[in-house]
Amino acid sequence: MSSKKIEKLRLYCAQINSTVGDFKGNFKKISFHINRAKLNDADIIAFPEMAVTGYPPEDLVLKPAFIEENLKYLEKIKKFSENIVIIIGFINKDFEIYNSAAVLNNKNLSSVYNKQFLPNYSVFDEERYFQKGSYDYIYEVCGVPFAVNICEDIYYSSGPTRFQAIYGGAKLIINISASPYHIGKIEQREKILFTRAVDNRVNILYVNLVGGQDELVFDGNSFLISEKGVILYRAKPFEEDFFIFDLFMENVDSTRIQDTKYKNQRESMKVENKPLKKIKLNIQKTPYTEKNKKLPDKKNTNINILNNKDINVDKCVDKYKELISCPEEEILKALTLGTRDYIKKNGFKKVVLGLSGGIDSALTSVIASFAIGSENVTGIIMPSLYSSEGSIKDSELLSQNIKIKTCIIPITPVYSSYLDNLKNLLKKGEINITKENLQARIRGNILMSLSNEFGWLVLATGNKSEVSVGYCTLYGDMAGGFSPIKDIYKTLVYDICNFLNRKYNNIIPQNILNKAPSAELKPDQKDQDKLPPYEILDKILKAYIEEEKDYRDIVKMGINKKITKDVINMVDSNEYKRRQGAPGIKVTERAFGKDRRYPITNRFKLI
Questions:
Q1: Which of 13, 29, 142, 151 is catalytic?
Q2: C-alpha angle with apex 332: 327 to 338, nearest 5 degrees?
Q3: Helices (H), 275-430
Q4: Which residues are bridge partners to 385 per DSSP?
Q5: Alpha-carbon distances of 576 from 281, 308, 338, 598, rounded to whole Å
Q6: pLDDT score of 601
Q7: SS in 3 state form for 432-501?
């Protein structure tokens, strides 16, 4: 048998949930994974973008003390790097401030890679804080050349990956990332990495952040993809996870030799005058050869170390559909993770919300119970003289199904007191918008009082369709510290609830799904007294908010002119309300908040 040296790297992918500014907590997670990686003879361990600080730190970057604390903890991490290579995201200070990856080895900071492409769109403001990097590096460990880049760097075909893999000869690219979730993002991201892997004939280890941070939720979904575009292994979505993989490089050379495009690009790049530094890293291990080869180490019996020799790389072995069965489950997991992290990272243990007997409060209560446990959720039923008997019964049945605590607090006595105190100021006659909103604000006051009394976080229950057009009450049903379904259109609320009932044996009472949506603030009230059917409304909203289509474009979609005009006017005139609402989880391509920023004072019209 040949004693030929085999090119192999044992990779440890650490998909962790960092908290912005929690240096001590983040360090505890980081050091735990490094120790486990060393116990299992990993050559390289990689963490997500800004794993040390959490992402996005926003204006904390402008505080010198924040930068210094981040550097202090990088020094602590460096001490763990004996006989292993650690790749970890942090904030670098070198005259300017950079979003960077540290390459640590044998208790030294061997190199710092500074992110070259800074996103400055959607929820990203990186050009506000960071300078662009300009240098590429090729590292060598165990005889294998590899390179590092950060998140956005890999999205560009002419970016660092091309230079590192083709000109630098890297056989592995490690991309550390903090890529937030929205519907369709996972598929979009994987298509891009497939293209980079195949075009550059290089293995890519993609290490993404997981967890919630304010309005953002990071889905994880870290994976290793081969030079042929085959996903070799994937970390679990929407939870902390890790994997260890023995990556043999023997297929890279043969694939590159057969690829004329790769060879031609390499020749043309020799004339490029771009800096490239090569750095050799040192790990004291017996070289892997055919003579001394052994089975993957299993020092921790719970860890299964895979390798690409045992996988048929000509077939896609990705099992994402086994982890996430449908789009509704994916969105539900995002909402649950984002809600859980917002609650826990902000120091709350319990939540409270109003239960109206409607579908929005039903979905919000299920998300809350999944996020922090049913025992930590309290639903407040607040009937008025306009509440139907069914709304109370439906709320009670829902609470029994999901095992949350409930309390009934009628608001009619308080409402009557308000009307009596204001009788000389309010208009006489039938109920109007003032009197409707009074009821909603009484409910908001009750929930906020319970929040003050018991330290509970109030969850608002409004959906994107209602919030978009202002069909909600400031200081009433908009009251709350967090709004889990704020970016979920009403039609999608129904889709998710139907999924929940299929998976969890009709956890949401069927009557909640069947009855016409109503605020129940006056007799026989229905949402569609003021709004078009949600199927039509949501089409208009998606076109106008997410796709930036104007009135004429939307009418061309076959939608009634008056309805379109009315909806657009409602969206435009309610920016002041949305600006005062609680934060909520971004799941669509264009969410309200830092993702979609329109002036409150605005007279621009195209109708």
A1: 151
A2: 130
A3: 320-323, 327-345, 359-372, 389-402, 412-421
A4: none
A5: 56, 55, 25, 10
A6: 86
A7: CHHHHHHHHHHHHHHHHHHHHHHCCEEECCCCHHHHHHCCCCCCCCCCCCEECCCCCCHHHHHHHHHHHH
What is each CA distance from 447 to 194, 262, 411, 476, in whole angstroms? Answer: 49, 63, 12, 10
**With the C-alpha atoms ordered 541, 547, 550, 555, is the resulting torsion angle positive or negative?**
negative
pLDDT at position 1 is 42
Q: Evaluate whether 47 touches 14 at the Cβ level (below 8 Å).
A: yes
Distance CA 412, CA 417 (A): 8
Higher pLDDT, 285 or 415: 415
Structure tokens at 306: 């895979």
Alpha carbons 189 and 540: distance in angstroms, whole number: 27
Q: Is 49 a catalytic residue?
A: yes
Please report the pLDDT score of residue 4 as a whole number: 66
Considering only 251-260, 390-399, 471-480, which range has the smallest mean pLDDT? 251-260
Active site residue 227: no
Q: Which of 8, 13, 29, 49 is catalytic?
A: 49
**Would you say residue 371 has pLDDT above 60?**
yes
- 486 is a catalytic site residue: no
For residue range 77-125, what is the model confidence (pLDDT) as tens digits? 999 999 999 999 999 999 899 999 999 999 999 999 999 999 998 888 8
* Active-site residue, from 29, 38, 78, 115: 115
Please, what are the domains in the chain?
A: 8-323 (3.60.110.10), 328-527 (3.40.50.620)
Helices (H), 40-143: 64-78, 126-129
